Every structure is written in C-alpha cells, then in structure tokens.
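User: Please predict the structure of the protein below. I'd like the answer in structure-token form so I can feed it into my own downstream comparison script.

Assistant: Understood. Taking the following sequence of 356 residues as input:
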Amino acid sequence: MTALDHTRHFYVGTYASDTEEGLFHATLNTENGEMHVVSGLGGIENPSYLAISPNRRNLYAVSEKEYGEILSYTIDPDTKELNPNDRQSSEGSSPCFVEPTPDGKMLLAANYGGCVVAFAVRDRGVLEQTSRVRHTGSGPHPERQTEPHPHSFVSSPDGVYLFAPDLGTDRIAQYTLEDERLFNQGEIELPGGTGPRTMAFHPKGKWAYVTGELDNTVTMLDYDMQSGRLAPAQSEPLLPELQASDPANTAAHTAVSPCGRFVYVSNRGDDSITQFKTDLSNGRLTFVERVPSGGRVPRHFAITDGFLLAAHQDSGQIVSFAIGEEDGRLTPTGFALELNRPVCVCPLPDAADVTI
C-alpha cells in the first residue's frame, strides 16, 4: 500500500472444490473500508487457512481435506497476483492452520486429524517436510474431544518457542526447533472442556491469548520469555452464561490489535465479535462490548489499516468495520464483499513492515 492509492491487498481462503475458484486476491480501500475482488484461483480444495512469508514473496495455503496438502504460491511484486509454486502433503488429515516462523526459514502446520508438522522453506518458497509429531490424549467432551485435534501452531515473538493449542486434549503443546526438527518441551494444561483453538501473542511479547472454542472463553496467559513457559492467569467469558452453554455457539478466532490495547474474539452461532481492553502493565483483559459480526458464522477475521475484516462462512460475505482509534470499538462501514463460504482473510503487509 502507498500513501497515494489508499489500497491494501489481501487474500481470501474459502471452502471450495478444486474445480472452482477458491483462493481470491482482493483489495481494501483504507479510507472507507470498501472491498473488491481482483481475481480468483482454482486447483486447490478448501484453502481454509492462509499465511504470508515474512519477506512478502510467498503465500502459503492449507488444503483442508482427508489427505491434506500445503501449497506455496509466489506473490508478484507488482500486481500482487498469485502463481502456484509448490505443493506438498501435510502429512495428516484436515490441515487447518499454517504459519511461517518469524525468520521465514520454517513453516508450521497443524492437522486437525491429530499431528503438527514442520517444513523447511527452501529457495523460492519450495517446501521440504522435516518433522512430524503426533499428539495423544483426549478431553471430557463426548463428541469433540475423543482424540487430539491441534488447531493452530504459532511461534513466540522471538521464534524460540512454538505452541500448538489442541482442541481435543485441552492442552497447549510446547516445542522448540533444532536442526529443522520439532522437540516437545512440555504442555500447558487448561480446564477440561476448554477446547483451545487459536492463540495470539501480545506485541510486547509478555502475554498470550487463547480462544476456548468449546467453553466460549478467552484465556490470558503470562509468558516467560526466558524459559518459554506459559501460565494461565485469567479466563473471561465471551458470551452471557446461557448463550455460552449453548452448544450451537462456538468461539473461533482471536487477534490482538497492532497497538496492543485491544483483543477481539469472534463467536459463531451468536454471530458476534467480543472486544476486550488490555492492561498494558500486566496484559489482563476487561470486557468492552459485544457487537453483531454482520453475517452468519464469523470463522475468521483480520485487522489491518484501522479496519477489521470479518469472514462469514455461512452467509458468504466479508464485512468491514472501522476500529475506533481511541476506544477500539467496531463501527460497520456498510461495505461487504460477497464470496462463497469465505473462512480466512490474509492481508499483505507493507514492504516497510518487512525486516527480512
């Protein structure tokens, strides 16, 4: 994006067959929140989660299916269009998350079917699978926690430690990478029935926030940057008690605002976004408000340029909200981008943000 064109490029993953367009390039007007589709790509089934390399040269996508795949695309530096680059097995079923390490040398993937995988990123974004770890255990939920279900796999801000929230076991597995291989460093236990799904670190690097999909909570954890240990310190409900206990309501995505002052969580079923204010001295959360997300099943959202873009899986649109500069409150812009089953929004960062 430049100061002159007020355009942010972003990419959208959807649930789609490999014979139809399912991965989209779009733009956001950063003055008013209006969005437009630029182009679409086919050839990938269910590109349900996306991530961009730290150097902005590659986009990675999962193909969420029984025999999962991870795909790499090159990003044209001028047009921002995507070109297929590499395709590898995810070494598991139903991959649901992918993220590069901060240095861009490794790519982390979570397979909902029960394992986490590490790929080395070779020249031009070509991937080589180097390590795979199968999770074990279960949880108390009779339907959703009969076996492990890692749902995300993230790096600490300094890239030293890796964390994999497991929805099926109520644990967050901790890893390190040595010689491109994963080594387990222990687990963080959460209350039974939490169903940890997604995890976001605070910009200060001292705290992390985890969505409880099954109990509709957000858990704040203190993070020791020396030892890499996470310690649960606070759990806050996302919904009123009666709604939180309704199995039709399941929490989805968590994100921290770039300024670090606010945390947002999307709620499926209730179809809302809950906002918290963070205490910058200790990372603790205070509830601010819960607002309608503008559609049905807000599975994912992204924050960029003072806007929140919420992807609605069932109603088929991405809705933009302006974020209040002082209070972080969400105000609908009135703009929506119509797409079939959008489930991930992935903004392309500015070149000025790239450190590698």
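That's the full token string. The CA atoms of residues 240 and 333 lie 27 Å apart.
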